Amino acid sequence: MTAGRGLWLTAALAALLALSVAVWHHRNPTRQVVRRFASLATLIDKDAAESPIQAAIRSQQLQGYFTNPAELQTPVYGLAGALTPTDIASQTMSARAFFLTLSLRFQDLHVTHPSRGIAEATVTARIEGQTSTGDAVEEIREMQCVLHRESGTWRFASCKLVDVLKK
Amino acid sequence: MNPHLMLRNFLFPRLNRRFFIRLTLVAAVTWFACTRVLVPMRIHGISMEPTYHDGDFGICWRLRYLFHPPQRGDIVAVRFAGPSAVLLKRVVALAGDEVAFRGGTLYVNGIAQDEPYTAKPCDWELPPRRVESGKVYVVGDNRSLPIEDHVFGQTETKRVIGTIL
Is the CB of A140 less than 8 angstroms away from the CB of B80? Predict the structure, then answer.
């Protein structure tokens, strides 16, 4: 074998390995759930220049993130009970309207798969923003969520807040 | 060796294999120390004033409770889902203790506690409650906040990830 052919063979093997890793990364259910959380956070984010049309598009997209119905136990955010995706989107958008800017970040996300098509996630949600009256808001909460895979898409089936400290 | 030469070798090392091994080792040890042992953190909020102020920097010593549980008076870091965000609070009672606030004074097992580290005035009223097994009761030092606005209470000992230095 010539040195040139050996080099080509090594490059081809490296490319094949990189492609395999990329495919595994893309199809790995845990990575898919992590990406779902990240895209939800991006959808909730708001900047001061957001137009009503952009808000309406986000509301429409948000509906695709939840099963019908989804069980939410987040009363501090005005979302509690078995709600339809439309209800969740409209109430979330109403809450967003109080903010001039809003940023949601998920940290320390731990995902397990008790069975095929179901994911259980524990995560720290960090909300920062500024209300329309100029007050700064910063909140950190722990959440437990269950996601179901429906038609190839991970959707939130339930979410509840965890009491880290109990008076 | 000539000190000038030593300084030059330190600042402008030869990029050989030994250098890269040393660099990798230093990076690995630094990463491990800063994420698992001595974790730098920035303090947000006023719940631990006057002991710690908003914007202060601190170092979380994560090995503190490796061999023994938290004690009364310890300032501890309580984690959420992971160590990226923690609550900084003081342990005031342990599992089995009865905790109450009367007229702004903390009572543990019916005995009024002297807490020179707290911010006053405090008018908190909290009926007695027992700390469950496997938990500790933590409160911030800033008791001048209204009781509804102050995040405190009992939490699992496993959530305590260290103390602040």
Answer: yes
Same domain? B15 vs B81: no
Each residue of B80-135: pLDDT tens digit? 999 999 999 999 999 999 999 999 999 999 999 999 999 778 899 999 999 999 99
Identify the closest residue of chain A to B149 by CA–CA distance.
A167
B30 in the same domain as B63: no
**Could you tell me the strand order of the sheet in which A79-83 lies?**
A79-83, A66-74, A153-162, A136-150, A118-131, A99-115
pLDDT tens for the 167 residues of chain A, in order: 567 788 889 999 999 999 998 888 778 999 999 999 999 999 999 998 899 899 999 999 999 999 999 999 887 777 889 999 999 999 999 989 899 999 999 999 999 999 999 999 999 999 999 998 989 999 999 999 999 999 999 999 999 999 999 99
Query: Looking at the complex, does the CB of residue B158 fall below 8 Å from at least one CB of chain A?
Result: no
* A141: containing domain: 30-162
Q: What is the structure's pLDDT at A1?
A: 58
φ/ψ region of A122 (left if φ > 0, alpha if ψ in -120 to 50, else beta) reads beta
Residues B24 and B81 in one domain: no
The 8-class DSSP code of residue B34 comes to I
Together in a domain, B15 and B72: no
Handedness of CA A116, A122, A126, A131 (dihedral sign): positive
Rounded CA separation A85/A104 (Å): 19
Cβ-defined contact of B87 to A109 (cutoff 8 Å): no
In this structure, the number of other CB atoms found within 10 A of the CB of residue B120 comes to 11
- d(CA B98, CA B80) in angstroms, rounded, equals 25
Length of chain A, in residues: 167
Indicate the number of domains in chain A: 1
